[in-house]
Amino acid sequence: IEQYLVYGNPIKQSRSPDIHKIFADENNIAIDYQKQLVALGDFKTAVKIFIAQGGKGANVTAPFKEDALKLADTLTERASLAGAVNTLTFKEGKIYGDNTDGEGLVQDLLHNNVTLKQSRILILGAGGAVRGVLLPLLAQDPKSITIANRTVSKAEALCENFNDERLTACGFDELADQTFDVIINATSASLSGDLPPIPTSVITNDIACYDMVYGKDDTPFIKWAKAQGARKTIDGLGMLVGQAAVSFSVWHKIMPDIHSVIEQLRKAIQ
Ligand code: ATR
């Protein structure tokens, strides 16, 4: 039976083992998938031990995604541009690093019937979460992606790094006269109950509002968007399932259906 695990610190909260087991059952594949708490500084050793035990692959969550990037012998383009690895594959003595977060977001947006092709996308935030999703989003052929951030220089640095004419950077106050089709909140503001200071004028009736964070209740951003009249609001639970699904497809060459797992998890967090 093939062995997989997810590394993190903390790790108790991780739902990856449950998600991967459901995908495996649905596709008649036998896997063993565990979670492992790793002490800071012990990541490399933990991976080497798992490889020696015959481990086939691992997911990586905070705070080890950059350690995983450094440890990989080979990186996919999306992992190297993300500057982070969340999926490791161990094969013939080599460590392959990938990042499925951005594709997980894309899968969830498409699953929610959000049109990305030729759309004007606004991303709030310019941290690691944004860097991780830009390449997969650009691959969906949007008209433009505007990155708005509290610290504008960080948004500008991201645009320079990706060097794509569809990308622009700005501050929140510059959004007042602009119109978008999709807004993705990728700031960590929701985690502390805060809201990025964006003008209410960006919320038009038919805009799709996505928050990368999820919880039992609506996130502050989703509450706010609904109050401004947004009809389509989506939280980040599906992105979590989506990144797992893409990891699963990297390992098992089958893209699982995310729909039923999202519903099961939604019930489990209520
Ligand atoms: P992550 O890996 O989750 O992206 P990060 O790299 O620390 O985490 O980035 C956090 C992002 O949330 C940044 O864009 C940050 O803005 P700054 O670059 O100006 O710091 C943004 N952020 C955090 N708290 C915020 C708040 N209260 N209002 C607006 N933006 C916030």
Automatic annotation (TrEMBL):
Active site per database record: K65
Binding sites annotated in the UniProt record for NADP(+): E77, G125, A126, G127, G128, A129, N149, R150, T151, V152, S153, K154, M212, G236
The Quinate/shikimate 5-dehydrogenase/glutamyl-tRNA reductase domain, residue ranges: 114-190
Pathway: Metabolic intermediate biosynthesis; chorismate biosynthesis; chorismate from D-erythrose 4-phosphate and phosphoenolpyruvate: step 4/7
CDD domains: NAD_bind_Shikimate_DH (cd01065)
Signal peptide: none
Reaction(s) the record says it catalyses: shikimate + NADP(+) = 3-dehydroshikimate + NADPH + H(+)
Pfam families reported in the protein's UniProt record: SDH_C, Shikimate_DH, Shikimate_dh_N
Occurrences of domain Shikimate dehydrogenase substrate binding N-terminal (ranges): 6-88
Family statement: Belongs to the shikimate dehydrogenase family.
Summary of subunit composition and partner proteins: Homodimer.
Entry function: Involved in the biosynthesis of the chorismate, which leads to the biosynthesis of aromatic amino acids. Catalyzes the reversible NADPH linked reduction of 3-dehydroshikimate (DHSA) to yield shikimate (SA).
Protein name: Shikimate dehydrogenase (NADP(+))
Taxon lineage: Bacteria, Pseudomonadati, Pseudomonadota, Gammaproteobacteria, Alteromonadales
Gene label: aroE
